[in-house]
Each structure stands twice: as C-alpha cells, then as structure tokens.
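Reopening closed ticket. The problem is back. First fold of the pair:
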Amino acid sequence: MNRMIQMERKVTEFGKSLGITMTDALEQIGLDQGDTVSIEVSPQMTSIRYLSVQHDTMI
C-alpha cells in the first residue's frame, strides 16, 4: 500500500522529555522498538522529515 497517511497528535510529556505517539504510522513503515531513525528538523519550515531507518538486529 503506497498511500500517505495524515494524522494529528498532541505533544505529550514522557518523563522529562516531550514527544508524540504514532505507533500505527511506525508499524506501517516497518519500525520497531530499538530501530534507529534519522530525521531532519527544519525550524524555518516548521517541519520534521524522516530520512532513513537502521533496524536493530540484536535479539
């Protein structure tokens, strides 16, 4: 399936950090706990873009 999924999330406090949950979206692109994600943050465009994934191969 090659369709764009649009969603709205609220920023939530996780301990002393801020974050968003997006489990469904992460599962759809094959991400799992422990995977490394490279992102690009653009303050000028107020955007965050996903660049690449390195899957954790540790069992």
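Second fold of the pair, where the issue appears:
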Amino acid sequence: MTLRSSGYSYGVRISHPEPAMRLDDNCFDLRDGETRLIRVTGIDPARLTVPHRTRMPA
C-alpha cells in the first residue's frame, strides 16, 4: 500500500485485528507531501485503514 501525507503526520501506525498481517514498516513520520510504500502480507491491503492524525511536533 502507498501512503501520502498532506501535512506533517507524526507516528503513523497501521493496525488491524488480523493476526497473520505483516508489514515491512509500521511506525514512522511523513513530511508534507511525502509518500511511503508499505509491503503488506497476510491480508488484502484494501481492508486496511490508517487513522488520520496530523500535528506538528513540539
């Protein structure tokens, strides 16, 4: 899956209750306009959602 940020996104995490799901990265920051390709296995990536939290670090 590809994630793209609009604004600074701090502590991006992807979660789902499927125990077989594996991600190659699951805790990162994205700068405004930055994209990140995450490899997902064990689940259809279309079933995932990423909560939107945008804030500036203190």
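Update: turned out to be a display glitch only; the data is intact. The chain has no helices and six strands. The chain has a mean pLDDT of 84. Please close again.
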